[in-house]
Amino acid sequence: MKTLITRMTLFGVMVLAGCSTNHFPEPKSMEPMVEFWERVYSEWNENQAVYHDNRYLSVIYDVVPVPNQDRRDFLRANENILREELVDMVARYQNKEKLTRNQRHWVKLLKKAGGEAAIYGAPERLRYQTGLKNNFRKGLEISGRYLPEFKAIMKRHNVPEEIAYLPHVESSFQGRAYSHVGAAGMWQFMPSTARDYMPMQRNVIDGRLDPFMAAEGAARYLGAANQRTQAWPLALTGYNHGVGGMVRAKNQLGTDDIGKIVWQYQGDRFGFASRNFYAEFLAAKRIADNSDSYFPGLHPQKPRKVDAITLNAPIKVRDLANALMISEIDLIELNPAWLKNIQINQAAIPANIPVWLPKGTAKRMPQDIGRVYDKR
């Protein structure tokens, strides 16, 4: 009975959280996708693999424990075995032969999700996803340090405050996250895009690694994306797929309904990741808005307390630390965008970018060195 009550309570939270907002509607056609990612983030942990249909995410074939060693080999071997069973299921169904118990269940799921036609392509659509429950929980705790400022940044740029939750999807709020394609930081900017939106100088500074600089960049990028797409769901999906691609999708289908686009658009590179990006965001937002219901006993980090300045002219870390009577280590820790050449005093800190200082330090700053950072 306790389990039943807990599930009913959580369901009520999910229904309330699932209500559409003006900026981020939740199309009914996408609800199975949102629910799938909600479970990835809050139910399945990193040592569980979910084998599912990559188009109809309500079709889940199996959830299996994953060993700590030889994980990839295990996952792929299990995938091959399951794909053979699906091939056998299709053959039996076509020939009107008796199905196994599992196959009968899978056929029922597929028919409900996509009609009889969904059965025949099932082997090719098989995919696995490992859970992210523990990482998401950690991200919720880490986010306490960042969300107040992130939301303020979004508000300053006339961007919906909910976009502050995007790092849950991109990096689980890990400031040093790197992707295999070259994206970096909490907001996962590619170098080519980052150069237009934040300080970037080879071997000197990488604004992607400073969560707050990158948040400013994300706000500006998404604001511009919304101007082009005229729809926040498309702008947000463009963060993953590219804004030009979403404009083409809108023009080709004659709609800005993200629910229709994710099901109907067949553009180049609009694959699983792009189709699911908005659903992942909605799931992350749903959980973050009701984090205590999903993860009781959280211990969020406290917001940072810093001063912010900009320099009148470039200066080396050693000289700035001496002028402010603080340690170089403290300065470097507060400014993760500074790369090695700045850290070892081979290059100067550039002027006219935000520099974070320990709280109360800015009042000791000589006027010829810098000024209080104007966030506008």
From TrEMBL:
Q: Which organism is it from?
A: Wohlfahrtiimonas chitiniclastica SH04
Family (UniProt): Belongs to the transglycosylase Slt family.
- Which PROSITE patterns does the entry link to? PROKAR_LIPOPROTEIN
What residues does the Transglycosylase SLT domain cover?
151-257
Q: What is this protein called?
A: Transglycosylase SLT domain-containing protein
Q: Which CDD domains match?
A: MltD-like (cd16894)
Pfam families associated with the record = SLT
User: Which Gene3D superfamilies does the entry link to?
Assistant: 1.10.530.10
